[in-house]
Specification:
Keywords: Carbohydrate metabolism, Cytoplasm, Isomerase, Magnesium, Metal-binding, Phosphoprotein. By secondary structure, the chain is of the alpha/beta class. It contains nine helices and six strands; from the N terminus they run βαααααβαβαβαββα. Bound molecules: 6-O-phosphono-beta-D-glucopyranose and magnesium ion (MG).
């Protein structure tokens, strides 16, 4: 049966996607690039340096900066992001998330974090959710980021189960591709048009329960 649920963080466990967007918007404006919410969809699930690269490409400025300058920009963005998330408390977990985690624990289903963010452990601490996680995949330990399946495969490997025994939960298109390419069952949170490649799309975490997760897995393994 289903043994493991691997969670994305930003946009699934907490509404931090808006803080990533604000921090990138601030950085972009300083270098004369305008980004909007629609473009931001393409940054979801994508690593810090890769996100910067996409913003620079949008403004056709990729070759105007050295690697050192790019690293400084990424650091500045992260500094602002860390400032913005300081106000996060356990109240800021998205609806049902603490309940779902507790219910999965009760059912002895293992829980992993498969986030591209290097701030994952900090955020889980701010949210008071660290204790629920049996593993946090270090995004620097995998070579290829989402949409490659590596981070989800690493999660199943660390928890000692087959990919087919896992469900992944994502809000990003790139993340859903990663889950599906890993051979896992994908539940997406968000817009059904963006996320049609998932096995099931829920419009928000309000609809997420451990029973729904188990049912979607079973549907996929009949
Ligand atoms: C992903 C976010 O979870 O993590 C992206 O969806 C973000 O927006 C990426 O760029 C990397 O995060 P961080 O915190 O390491 O810059
Ligand atoms: Mg996300």
């Amino acid at each position: 049966g289903m043994q493991v649920v691997l969670f994305d963080l930003d946009g699934v466990i907490a509404d931090t996607a808006k803080y990533h967007f604000l921090a990138w918007k601030h950085l972009s404006e300083k270098i004369g690039v305008t980004i909007d919410e629609e473009f931001n969809e393409q940054l979801k699930g994508i690593s810090r340096m890769e996100s910067l690269e996409r913003i620079l490409e949008l403004g056709q400025k990729s070759d105007q900066y050295s690697l050192v300058e790019k690293e400084k920009m990424a650091d500045d963005k992260n500094e602002l992001y860390i400032e913005l998330i300081q106000t996060i408390t356990p109240e800021d977990a998205l609806p049902q998330i603490p309940q779902v985690l507790a219910s999965l624990k009760d059912k002895e289903i293992k829980i992993g974090l498969a986030s591209a963010s290097k701030n994952g452990p900090l955020l889980l601490d701010l949210l008071g959710l660290t204790e629920f996680f049996d593993c946090i995949v270090d995004p620097t330990s995998v070579v290829a980021g989402k949409p490659a399946p590596d981070i989800f495969l690493k999660g199943s490997e660390l928890l000692g189960v087959q990919p087919s025994q896992c469900v992944g939960i994502e809000d990003a298109s790139a993340g859903v591709w990663a889950i599906k390419d890993a051979g896992m069952t994908a539940i997406a949170i968000g817009d059904v048009i963006n996320l049609a490649h998932a096995d099931k799309v829920l419009s928000s975490t309000c609809e997420l329960t451990s029973n729904v997760i188990t049912q979607v897995w079973h549907e996929n393994h009949k």
